[in-house]
Amino acid sequence: MKNGLIANVDLIKQVNSAAVYRLVDSQGPISRVKIAEVSQLAPASVTKITRQLIEHGLIKEVAQQASTGGRRAISLTTETSKFHFVAAKIGRRLLTLSLYDLSGKEIVGIQLPIQVTEQDDLVEFLCQTLADFIDEYARKTKKLIAIAVTLSGLVNPQSGIVIYTPRYNMRNCPLADIISRRFSMPAFVGNDTRAMALAEHYFGASNDCDDSILITIHHGTGSGIMSRGQVFLGSNRNVGEIGHIQIDPLGKRCHCGNYGCLETVASNEAIVEQVKQYIEEGRQSSLGGKQIDISSICQAANKGDALAISVLTNVGKYLGQAIAIMVNLFNPEKVLIAGEIMAADQVLLPAIKQCVHHQSLPSFHDNLPIVPAKFQKQPTMGGFALVKRVLLDGSLLQTIMEGNRHQ
Ligand SMILES: [Zn+2]
């Protein structure tokens, strides 16, 4: 009973500290009076919590000129340079690591090829690369508070267990625990697309709304759904598999076993394949005889190449069909699109919009922005979002304030 009470007191402390930190983060510079007003916490509590947050270097005082002139009022703002963390993205062929401060400024970043194919080798490669990176760039600053990793596949973000990834044969791998024990600090693991949707919500193109959908087109096609400011998750933590919506019953076989999934026509490989096939069949294109990849196709389309335009317009229509289904189901305030293909957004977006317009409810698509995502080339921003989430919900904040960080 007594333990239960103590746990409750701790939880209340965590919830209140988090509420104050969130206000300073979202509305700072903000005065203590205003914090008390908005949070409805007693002024004495606000004084105590802000003192603790200042002592731990999480927020700081700044002097602001009062609007009436005269005496300078003291306000609070977040302290972002005193803590660092590492965000890693495990891609198909590349491991990207970034060292960030809490403002999201990347202090240093590296990218290495991944040459392993199995789970244990991947985990060892990741840990060794992290260790070298931390020794080189982060150990001496003594500011490191967390490590976050994102990757494609089925991940339980609460437990940090990678349940399944098609690549690297990962099955039920407790990756967050492994990293946390190895480096003696909190570690967080999440699905890359869902984490990027969170990053767009915190710092990117969907920062102005609570309900949005991020569509990603790379090797596959995926989506991350934000609902009321949170990543929308199903009971098995996996939702938004837009790539496996069937858009052509007579289409190609997909690796999932079905036919004509969106991914069979709207992934980078599928698009490149399609263009190559048309050229082999003798169709005219400025791409004939050249190295064909997604970037050269986009460039050709932007310069008016009819074949490239027609292939991308088709892809836009297929994407539009699947996005229209998402719009009907979730009624988002905004749809974001990320992928190398967005280099030809002037060709792609009109095709997507037209299809969404025809195939979703008018009240859902009227004034619905369908726009490029902000983070097209910063793969570790997803990891940054995972850390930001635990700062804002109070759990990582509490760890820092309890002095549990190990350096
Ligand atoms: Zn499929």
From TrEMBL:
PROSITE patterns: ROK. It comes from the Bacteria. Keywords: Carbohydrate metabolism. InterPro entries: ATPase_NBD, ROK, ROK_cs, WH-like_DNA-bd_sf, WH_DNA-bd_sf. SUPFAM superfamilies: Actin-like ATPase domain, Winged helix' DNA-binding domain. It holds the Pfam family ROK. The keyword Protein transport does not apply. PANTHER family: N-ACETYLGLUCOSAMINE REPRESSOR, ROK (REPRESSOR, ORF, KINASE) FAMILY. Belongs to the ROK (NagC/XylR) family. This is ROK family transcriptional regulator. It comes from Motilimonas cestriensis.
